[in-house]
Amino acid sequence: MIERRSVLKALGATATLAATHAAFAQAPAAAPAAPAAPFTLPPLPYAYDALEPYFDAETMHLHHDKHHAAYVKNLNAAIETHPELGNKTVEALLADLNAVPEAVRTAVRNQGGGHANHSFWWPTLSARGGSAPTAELAKDIDASFGSFSALQDKFTKAAIGVFGSGWAWLTLDDGKLKLETSGNQDSPLSAGRTPILTVDVWEHAYYLKYQNKRADYVAAFFKVVNWDYVSSQYAHAKSAKA
Ligand code: MN
User: Fold this and answer.
1) What is the DSSP letter of 205?
2) Residue 72 C-alpha to ligand 1 middle, in angstroms?
3) Regarding the domain with residue range 57-124, which homologous superfamily does it belong to in the CATH classification?
4) How does pLDDT run across 131-150, given as a tens digit for each residue?
5) Where exactly does CATH 1.10.287.990 map onto the chain?
6) Which of 75, 120, 162, 176 reaches 20 to 30 Å from 184, CA-CA?
7) 32 preceded by cis ω (within 30°)?
8) Span 72-86, mean pLDDT?
9) Mean pLDDT, rounded, for 90-110
10) Mean pLDDT of 21-28
């Protein structure tokens, strides 16, 4: 009995030594941990009052610093249990929601959608906006909708028609322009389409200045669209999909 115990003890010591060696050997090769908060709030690419009088500074402060910031914070919190998701871009996560573990899929769809949609939207607006699409985008809008003014009418109707909170979009769908809407923070990326133009029709985007007059807000939106940027992004998207 004593003999057996000392053999077991010796075996245990050997195993411990081996484990220690293994730990030393493996430690330097361990993969670096993903950052604790991999998603970050991009700064607004202009001053908060840049889009006055169409979009007021107070709304822009709340919209960017509170609403958009909350989506980022909640997205980071949601993926704490799945830190490997932080190695992908939010756009890549949304483009393949089925690859996101089911336990956090709804949170990624909602919070990640909120982060991606606002990140896409801010640079499409400008104090020097409001003119008209150019180059290939202008040509393709004419071909698909008849004219820029016809597109504006249809886009406005779609935006007004969103029941509750959501977005109206012009997207690139298999090489063709498509007008669509989404509810909540759903992104066309999840349906395989590329966003070209959008307007946020959540009440947080317009209620302070426009109250219930969503049509007036959408008309104001068209005064601040940065068509040069949108048209150039469209050319990139079209050549990338070609
Ligand atoms: Mn919003």
Assistant:
1) G
2) 12
3) Fe,Mn superoxide dismutase (SOD) domain (1.10.287.990)
4) 999 999 999 999 999 999 99
5) 57-124
6) 176
7) no
8) 97
9) 98
10) 42
